[in-house]
Design goal:
Length: 227
């Protein structure tokens, strides 16, 4: 790409403005363009053969709007976009959460919804130091409204004299829909407390799974947004 066309691309895509606003990251001097692999013609053939998957999914009958739950005092703006939420080799039971974001009005999945999520570690502590985003992430839903992340099962913690049942905080935003603040809880959790702060429909069952000799937990949490 020539300097001229690069400038035009940056201007049209708005990246120039974003780069100025960030003002920190700069490609190292002397960096070469990433080499191409295979021919563009082959890539085109693959796309033509398989095409874009049609989104024919429909929300299950009887699904209701996901209830709200408290934002709590520990939300931090600006968490990184990533699917691995816990730090590498963090202590605790590995937990994989999957789900879809749905629209109550169309009963179709919402692509491009932004899920902001945060939770505490196995000692019940939130990472609250400036710039520390442990156990925090944002995720954008796929073309079929799906999301997935890996983390560790959070612990209960004490708040106002009572224990809060283990939970993961969610804030879900999508254009044209009300932003939803809620929490995910785990059905049958050993640390579950008699917690009246949330709706029972926010409790999801845990399934124990095994992979390469290691056990982990999996759960599904679908979210339904309203206009
Ligand atoms: Fe919390």
């Amino acid at each position: 790409m020539s300097d001229r066309s690069r400038r035009d691309f940056l201007r049209v895509s708005g990246l120039a403005a974003a780069g100025t606003a960030g003002g920190i990251l700069t490609l190292r001097a002397g960096a070469a363009p990433t080499a191409a692999s295979g021919s563009p013609a082959i890539a085109r053939q693959v796309i033509d053969q398989f095409g874009e998957p049609p989104v024919t999914l429909t929300m299950k009958d009887g699904a209701k709007a996901t209830p709200r739950a408290a934002l709590g005092p520990f939300h931090v703006e600006g968490a990184p976009f990533r699917g691995k939420v816990s730090p590498p080799r963090a202590p605790g039971t590995v937990l994989v959460v999957t789900g879809r974001v749905w629209a109550l009005d169309t009963r179709k999945p919402i692509a491009g919804a932004v899920i902001d999520l945060w939770h505490c570690d196995i000692h019940g502590n939130y990472a609250n130091d400036a710039g520390d985003f442990r156990y925090r992430a944002r995720i954008i839903t796929s073309e079929t409204g799906a999301y997935e992340y890996e983390t560790i099962h959070p612990s209960r913690y004490q708040a106002g004299g009572d224990f809060r049942s283990p939970h993961i905080h969610y804030r879900i935003a999508a254009p044209g829909y009300h932003t939803l603040v809620t929490q995910l809880f785990f059905e049958g959790d050993a640390e579950h407390n008699d917690d009246s702060l949330f709706d029972a429909s926010l409790m999801m069952p845990i399934v124990k799974k095994g992979e390469a000799g290691a056990e982990y937990e999996a759960t599904e949490f679908d979210i339904v947004l309203t206009k």
